[in-house]
Amino acid sequence: MDTIRLKNKLLDKVNEIRYLPITGSTNQDAMDWLIAGAGDGCVVGADEQTAGRGRFDRKWVTLPGSALAFSMVIRPKPEELLYLPLFTPLAGIAVSSAIESLWPVHPLIKWPNDVLLGGKKICGILGELAWDESKLVGLVLGIGVNVSKGAVPPVEQVSFQAGCLEEVLKTEVDRVDFLAQILNEFHRWRAYIGSADFIEYWQDHLAFKNQEVKLVATGGAEVFGRLVGVDKTGELILETDLGETSVQVGDVHLRLRS
Ligand code: BTN
Questions:
Q1: CB of 13 shorter than 6 A to ligand 1
Q2: Residues 236, 173: one domain?
Q3: Are residues 145 and 236 both part of a single domain?
Q4: Dihedral through CA 91, CA 97, CA 99, CA 101, nearest 10?
Q5: Closest-lying ligand 1 atom to the alpha carbon of residue 51
Q6: Which pTM does this prediction carry?
Q7: Are residues 200 and 247 in the same domain?
């Protein structure tokens, strides 16, 4: 594999990067590329997405010049298969850790993987798996970061308050440098997936710790409790009236109890 550089930053484990001025969804592009044989660590990014997708079948709007929108092709190694549910949190950790390494701020991770800065969501992550019958082909991890104000969706279009990096940092962000940092942090943390250090980083950056929260299932069912933390499998631990309970990543929305 040739060594890849973005500007002057060396990207150690990145296989190939494709950059598109405009596309439908980089997750779709990465998925097609994965199925066509893309190797582990390939990346596709775009300046604008016309059919960007988010969790819970939501739309994710990416306007030109305002955001970072890219997707990674991952072909998990056999020893990583045990940790598949931790790959989207890994992407959240990579974004958080890239931000901390570049600027003096403390991002938080809203379980399972939204990154918050100044209490507002600045980054969303969508992981999608590809199967060939019962055999895993690989996964695609899509990351969308609101960099400047133009990326922030109007209040009526979001279920959690959104913000952008530049608003909090009060400085211009170089998207290419930031992308390079996220990719390097992703591959650095990947080596620790599921380890005590990985869980400790996640716990230290968990939003709403010790606060009263509610989890809302897609069907509308609600669970209330105090947010205790995450366990080593990535499940969220809540202290409810009936005792401690853990919740798997899935179709649940996490909110502060109002
Ligand atoms: C969320 O709902 O919070 C997840 C949003 C994920 C958006 C990113 S932008 C790059 C990639 N391409 C997509 O279509 N979605 C992801």
A1: no
A2: no
A3: no
A4: -150
A5: 14
A6: 0.94
A7: no
Q: What does the pLDDT read at residue 160?
A: 85
Distance 240 CA to ligand 1 centre (A): 32
Domain count within the chain: 2
CA of 143 to the centre of ligand 1 (A): 5
Determine if ligand 1 sits within 6 Å of the CB of residue 142: yes
CA distance 87 to 174: 26
**CB distance 215 to 222 below 8 Å:** yes
Closest CA to 93 of 141, 26, 165, 30: 141
- The reply to whether ligand 1 has any atom less than 6 angstroms from the CB of 144 is yes
Q: Position 233: which residue type? A: T
Residue 208 is classified by DSSP as T
Q: Domain residues for 150? A: 3-204
> Are 199 and 218 within one domain?
no
What does the pLDDT read at residue 253? Answer: 82
Which residues of the chain are under the pLDDT cut of 70?
A: 1-3, 7-10, 250-252
Q: Which two tokens stand for residue 122?
A: 């600045």
Examine the domain organization and report whether 75 and 194 are in the same domain. Answer: yes
Q: Does ligand 1 have an atom closer than 6 angstroms to the CB of 175? A: no
- CATH number, domain of 220, equals 2.30.30.100
Based on the domain organization, do 115 and 187 belong to the same domain? yes
Phi, psi of 117 (to 5 degrees): -140, 130
